[in-house]
Amino acid sequence: MSDIHSQVAASAEIRARIDTTTPHSARFWNYFVGGKDNYEVDREIGDQIKEIFPGLVDVAVTSRLFLGRAVRHLVREEGIRQFLDIGTGLPTADNTHEVAQREAPDARIVYVDNDPIVLTHAGALLTSTPEGRTTYLDADLYAPDTVLEAAAGTLDFSQPIALIILNTLGHVADYDQARDLVRSLVAGLPSGSHLVISDSTATSEGMIAASNAYNASGATPYYVRSVEEIAGFFDGLDLVAPGVTQVPSWRPDPGTGPADASVDAYCGVARKP
After folding, report:
1. Which residues of 104-127 are buried (b: 16+ CB within 10 A; e: fewer)?
2. Of 22, 17, 25, 18, whose CA–CA distance to 172 is shortest?
3. Are 113 and 29 in contact (CB under 8 A)?
4. Which of 25, 74, 86, 187 could bridge to 112 as Cys pair (CB 3.0-4.6 Å)?
């Protein structure tokens, strides 16, 4: 089969995996941050949840802003030039590679997701400065060794790497399993690497109700956790100040204040000794 025919067949196979009859987390989140890559079923559950708990929109927006701040910090202050972003989601504005390469054109980024929706949009992610490199892996968080092995085709594992897992670990139902997955990934990274995590938290009745409504919709469940459980992902690592905190409070940009800080999502950045 020719390359073009192989590409067409692969594209058809990916499209066949897309279910437009039930809500989808990447499309749902895309709707909340103002994207256009979503379907009516995603917007319907999104609107229902906004009625239950409008604050979830703030979680989506502030989490995206945290990504930018964390990446800029890692490039400017920690000298990081390599990023492994697991649970990529759908591309919007200021994706990891855009922020990183704006600061350091030679930055290398590997995106990881195994979702057909995200895979169909991989072309929008596979852009890079001439000096750097951006690639996409169709791989699974539940296979950390496979992820690390594949990422080594782009990233230099003798140099520090930033592992980014945003709003993804909540999909792992068992907390101990989620911690083990994070440990396995971090164990494969060199000293001086960093871990960046944010996730929604069970810190209000509204967020818990929103999570229950979303899980009842037929979408892949997302389990909100306690702040202590989020902090547990960083065990054995050196937390960067201000530690594990509400997403808007992590090194806020000038002009933002305490009024912006109350969301049901916590985050942290930590260095591997």
Report:
1. beebbbbbbbbbbbbbbbbeebee
2. 25
3. no
4. 86
CB atoms within 10 A of CB 62: 23
CA distance 29 to 167: 10
Cis ω for the linkage preceding 242 (within 30 of 0): yes
125-176 pLDDT, tens digit per residue, is: 778 999 999 999 999 999 999 999 999 999 999 999 999 999 999 999 999 9
Distance in angstroms between the alpha carbons of the first and the last residue of the chain: 49
Mean pLDDT of the chain: 85
What percent of the chain is modeled with pLDDT above 70?
A: 81
